[in-house]
């Protein structure tokens, strides 16, 4: 499966075209809209999210609630476009008409300067409109389709926030994935630890008051993956590597880890590797899950645990030092409306990109035309893996 996205943050709409989704998958706008709404929430979001009411239009590839196997086109309207028609319109403007809201003072940490140099844009709006995290809207839409594939195969995905602005959540929890999902859903910062939640909200308030922004860490957990998805045979077949790449592709993400991740550097092997057990009901299991569900680039059948770190959003109301690219004079960077913290929303994006990679790998490995065939192949594979 693959998909492309298109659209500018303040342009008319965002679009994704998804190819390779098997025929016969149950899919309705409601599956996607629920995910879009989750991404819009989260303490620390700015005013833009009060303008947008993200709703998907399914324009191809689905008929009577079921996928056809043909490309699926999904679009989401940018309501804010009505305020930006003149600035973001596709039509040429008259020579004597001034382009409004030009940006010539790049924001450190954003794509502004590098993108402007690369594409030769003197107005850096031409860069920021596409580099904006608004694009994650349709990545979440594509992820919702992937989640639907996983769900039909009995695979569940949940995400939560484990750190914001240096406030760490207690992550020793033993709830079921469903309880974890529900708790995260009920939290304004998608955090399971109610003490940490309050401190995170305070940290966001403080950052906002100071015109600053803060980042954090999100975690995605996936239960029910069959064993042996992905492969050790070639670098680009390693599924854990694809997950790391997917996490790093989310706007403002600077790192990814799987299982104990960087912590493995500090532990002896006896405290890292997960001992192997077998019982008749579950087949092979592990005493621990330090590997985060991966060995040799393949799933172990234990829960997949992926974390990603998001840097603070680079658009600051207390702007950092920059240079005006026209005058070359030192200036404070441009001030644009922004969020003071988007980590809770980013955890929904992280779920989407992880779901996408896992669903793609399953579809590739277990036959990719018809959902029923994939279901049957996965069922048989689970059975033979248990008795292996
Ligand atoms: C973003 C800036 C803000 C955010 C935006 C990402 O948008 P605006 O410039 O319109 O205020 O709200 O995020 C979204 C629009 C979204 O849907 O998540 C940026 O510069 O990356």
Write a structural description.
FMN binds at residues 130-132, 251-252, 296, 311-315, 337. InterPro entries: Chorismate_synth (IPR000453), Chorismate_synth_AroC_sf (IPR035904), Chorismate_synthase_CS (IPR020541). Its cofactor is FMNH2. This reaction introduces a second double bond into the aromatic ring system. Belongs to the chorismate synthase family. There is one protein chain. By secondary structure, the protein is an alpha+beta fold. The chain has a single domain (2-387), classed as 4-Layer Sandwich (Chorismate synthase, AroC fold). It is built from eleven helices and 17 strands. The chain has a five-stranded antiparallel β-sheet. It has a four-stranded antiparallel β-sheet with strand order 1-2-6-3, with helices on one face. Strands 4-5 form a two-stranded antiparallel sheet. A hairpin with a 2-residue loop joins β7 and β8. The chain is globular, with a radius of gyration of 22 Å. The structure holds ligand EPS. The site of ligand EPS has 13 residues, from loops.
SSE topology:
Blueprint: E1 2-6, E2 13-19, H1 29-40, H2 48-51, E3 56-60, E4 62-63, E5 66-67, E6 72-77, H3 85-88, H4 112-119, H5 125-131, H6 136-152, E7 156-164, E8 167-168, H7 177-186, H8 194-209, E9 216-223, H9 239-248, E10 253-258, E11 276-279, E12 283-286, E13 294-295, E14 298-299, E15 304-310, E16 321-323, E17 330-332, H10 343-365, H11 371-387
Antiparallel strand pairs: 1-2, 2-6, 3-6, 4-5, 7-8, 7-9, 9-15, 10-15, 11-12, 13-14, 16-17
Helix pairs in contact: 1-6, 1-10, 4-5, 6-10, 9-10
């Amino acid at each position: 499966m693959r998909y492309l996205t298109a659209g500018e943050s303040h342009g008319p709409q965002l679009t994704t075209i998804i190819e390779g989704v098997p025929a016969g998958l149950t899919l309705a706008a409601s599956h996607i809209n629920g995910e879009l709404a989750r991404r819009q929430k989260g303490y620390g979001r700015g005013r833009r999210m009060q303008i947008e009411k993200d709703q998907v239009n399914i324009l191809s590839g689905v008929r009577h609630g079921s996928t056809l196997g043909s490309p699926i086109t999904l679009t989401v309207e940018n309501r804010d476009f009505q305020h930006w028609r003149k600035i973001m319109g596709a039509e040429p403007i008259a020579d004597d008409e001034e382009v409004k809201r030009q940006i010539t003072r790049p924001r450190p940490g954003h794509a502004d300067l590098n993108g402007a140099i690369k594409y030769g844009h003197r107005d850096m709006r031409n860069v920021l409109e596409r580099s904006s995290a608004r694009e994650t809207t349709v990545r979440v839409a594509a992820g919702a389709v992937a989640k639907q594939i996983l769900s039909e195969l009995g695979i569940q995905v949940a995400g939560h926030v484990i750190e914001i602005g240096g406030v760490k959540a207690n992550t020793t929890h033993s709830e079921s994935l469903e309880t974890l999902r529900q708790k995260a859903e009920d939290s304004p910062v998608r955090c399971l630890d109610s003490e940490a939640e309050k401190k995170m909200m305070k940290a966001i308030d403080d950052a906002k008051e100071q015109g600053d922004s803060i980042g954090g860490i999100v975690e995605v957990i996936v239960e029910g993956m069959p064993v042996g998805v992905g492969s050790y045979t070639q670098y680009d077949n390693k599924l854990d590597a694809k997950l790391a790449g997917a996490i790093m592709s989310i706007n403002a993400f600077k790192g990814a880890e799987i299982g104990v991740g960087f912590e493995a550097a500090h532990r002896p092997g006896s405290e890292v590797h997960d001992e192997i057990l077998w019982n008749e009901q579950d087949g092979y299991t592990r005493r621990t899950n330090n590997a985060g569900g991966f060995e040799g680039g393949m799933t172990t059948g234990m829960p997949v645990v992926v974390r990603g770190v998001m840097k603070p959003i680079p658009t600051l109301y207390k702007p950092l030092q920059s240079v005006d690219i026209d005058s070359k004079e030192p200036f404070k960077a441009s001030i644009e409306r922004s969020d003071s913290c988007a980590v809770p929303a980013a955890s929904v994006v992280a779920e989407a990109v992880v779901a996408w990679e896992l669903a793609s790998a399953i579809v590739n490995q277990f036959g990719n035309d018809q959902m029923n065939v994939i279901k049957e192949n996965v069922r048989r594979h689970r059975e033979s893996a248990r008795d292996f």
